[in-house]
Amino acid sequence: MGNVSKVVKSAIDAGITFFDTSPMYGEAERVLGLTLKGQRNSVQIATKVWADSALQGLAQSKRSLFYFEGRIELYQIHNLLNWREHLEMIERLRDKGKVIAIGATHYSCHSFLELRQVMESGRISVIQIPYNIEQREVEKHILPLATDMGLGVVIMRPFGGGNHLRNCPSESLLTPLAPFGVKTWPQALLKWILSDGRCHTAIPATSKSQHVFENAAAGNPPWFGEQERNYVLRLAGKM
Ligand SMILES: NC(=O)c1ccc[n+]([C@@H]2O[C@H](COP(=O)([O-])OP(=O)(O)OC[C@H]3O[C@@H](n4cnc5c(N)ncnc54)[C@H](OP(=O)(O)O)[C@@H]3O)[C@@H](O)[C@H]2O)c1
Question: Which domains does the chain have, with CATH numbers?
Answer without folding.
Answer: 3-162+199-208 (3.20.20.100)
